[in-house]
Design a protein that fits this description.
The chain has about 90 residues and is an all-alpha fold. The chain has four helices and no strands. The protein has helices at about 5-10, 20-35, 45-60, 85-90. The longest helix has 18 residues, at about 20-35. The protein starts with a helix and ends with a helix.
């Protein structure tokens, strides 16, 4: 899933992502890949796979919970930051 496909897919979830948020996700991706060289955070490091299996999958919680109305959320044991970091970027 490339970034354009990602944007289309999240729109189908009812989520609108700004250019700033997309850039933040890209920076997160770069940091993930860089840190993964030092510490094994994930076996999924190809950009298209990260956007699908980490970023998009993290946002599918919106199928069950309306995060635009939530003030707090607890993510216990998110490891490499999924889904917590993605949710924080998209729902600041």
């Amino acid at each position: 899933m490339n970034r354009e496909e990602f944007l289309t897919a999240v729109k189908e979830l009812g989520i609108s992502i700004t250019d700033k948020q997309l850039e933040q996700l890209n920076e997160y991706y770069k940091a993930l890949v860089e840190w993964n060289k030092k510490i094994n955070l994930t076996s999924i490091t190809e950009e298209k796979d990260v956007y699908l299996k980490h970023f998009y999958d993290s946002l599918t919680i919106c199928n069950a919970i309306d995060l635009s109305k939530s003030e707090t959320l607890c993510d216990i044991g998110s490891g490499a930051g999924f889904p917590g970091m993605v949710l924080k970027i998209v729902f600041p």
